[in-house]
Amino acid sequence: MFRGRGLRAAVAACCATAMFTSPALAAGGPGAPGAGDDYFPGYGNGGYDVSHYDLALRYQPSEDHLRGTATIVATTTQDLTSFNLDFALTAKSVRVNGMPADFRQHGLEMTVTPPSPLPEGELATFVVEYEGVPSTVDVDGKTPWVRTAGGALAIGQPEISSWWFPGNDHPRDKATYDVAVAVPDGTEVLSNGAHTGNSSLAGWTTWHWRNSEPTATYLAFLAIGQYELHARKGAFGQPFISAYSERLGELAGPAKASIERTPEVLDFLSGRFGDYPFGAQGGVVPAEGLNFALENQTRPTYSHLFFRSGSNTSVVVHENAHQWFGDSVSVDRWRDIWLNEGFASYAEWMWSEAQGTGTTQQLFDHYYRAHPADDAFWQVLPGDPGPDDVFHEAVYDRGAMALHALRNVIGDAAFQEIARTWAAEHRHGNGNIGQFIDLAEKISGQDLGELFDAWLFTPGRPPADPSLGVPAGAEPRSAEAPAAVSEIDRTHEILAGHGSAHGYGSAHGHGR
């Protein structure tokens, strides 16, 4: 069990080592085959930092066949004799700075040996030509690419990019993207950022997308198939693009009634968290193949399941809150996932309060009571859930409770200043829990180690104690739950389904 001060010391010691540099190889040698993440040690790579991905793809839905050329623009962070890319499909050739390079593949690791060593600090380009049938590629029991009727979905967390482009697959190495996908005429392609146009030739249409802000690899996505597209001005005068599968049937209405409120939601969230960090916005709803929602940068994607009982703005709030917490400010390590999910879940509570369907305190009281003190829910630690429980419901709901407890202790003004400062200071970067605790203590002027320790790092339900943010009377049951609970619970039940689909945890998903 970590305690507040010990936690910060541990985090500081961990993060003092640069992620993409291996001290033992400072004089030159191979780049590390992992980024040093203790939950997923094989994810990411060392020795270089990617600034841009240019992806030229051709996809045939009838065969689920993908062919591509990825041009990766990077800067070396050490003298490199070889380096790794995370990739699951079959590479046909690799060039480094225009010259043919040797390579070998095993699992998700592709090791590339350039014809001559790459000096530290220099611009480098890696060009990989590849092809495959992504839905048939299984690595360690995972196949996140989903083939659908007439198309496919490349959407997942913590891994998806390796099934459609080679890269440095860890949130610490963000990059910009140009994505061009050729598909048979009449097929639509959705991706991140701005739609920069289409071109057609010999029965094929190429869709062009540009994502101009730094983006983690797992937040880059593709949705291919038969979609009804809508484009208009959204919040802050930005382009808003939404897309709905033509096969949604009776769910099309409630889906549109939810997703088309995204500009309203973003306006609300910007009032709490500061300026929206990106230049585009929107949403996508497929009709199959997805049992969660994901905060794909600038364009969250939602399972049709969220709209079975009618419109659902809670999930729209959740995924768009992630644009600040998760997308712009990404985790430093996957163990920091509470910084993503706690804020996104608490944003739902704030929205509920603004809509008059339940105050944040009423929702806190409800979830505090909903799980008895001996419930296994309280044994999962949001601040260090472990790789098998990264998407456990406790990371979401106990995580939101932790933020409300903090707000109860330090007051509304300090809480809002912390949220806005965190989003601004780490914009387009990364952050960890230790840094967040330090910021909270600096702004509030209080020692918050005991509070954070109780909510994030100690098994068991925190006792009813105002010093821990639990007001007297929180435990006894009141008459009825706030109206927002049914929608939030429905949202979180589906969201909790994402993890099991990818082999992580018993909760079924991070659609949140």
TrEMBL record:
InterPro entries with a match to the protein in the record: Aminopeptidase_N-like_N (IPR045357), Aminopeptidase_N-like_N_sf (IPR042097), Peptidase_M1 (IPR001930), Peptidase_M1_aminopeptidases (IPR050344), Peptidase_M1_dom (IPR014782), Peptidase_M4/M1_CTD_sf (IPR027268)
Location of the Peptidase M1 membrane alanine aminopeptidase domain: 311-455
Region (Disordered): 463-484
UniProt catalytic activity: Release of an N-terminal amino acid, Xaa-|-Yaa- from a peptide, amide or arylamide. Xaa is preferably Ala, but may be most amino acids including Pro (slow action). When a terminal hydrophobic residue is followed by a prolyl residue, the two may be released as an intact Xaa-Pro dipeptide
Keywords in alphabetical order: Hydrolase, Metal-binding, Metalloprotease, Protease, Signal, Zinc
This enzyme's EC code(s): 3.4.11.2
CDD domains assigned: M1_APN_like (cd09603)
A Pfam family reported for this protein in Swiss-Prot or TrEMBL: Peptidase_M1_N
The keyword Signal is annotated on this UniProt entry: yes
Keyword Zinc: yes
Lineage: superkingdom: Bacteria
Cofactors, names only: Zn(2+)
Residue span, Aminopeptidase N-like N-terminal domain: 51-219
Signal peptide: 1-26
Family to which the UniProt record says this protein belongs: Belongs to the peptidase M1 family.
This protein's name: Aminopeptidase N
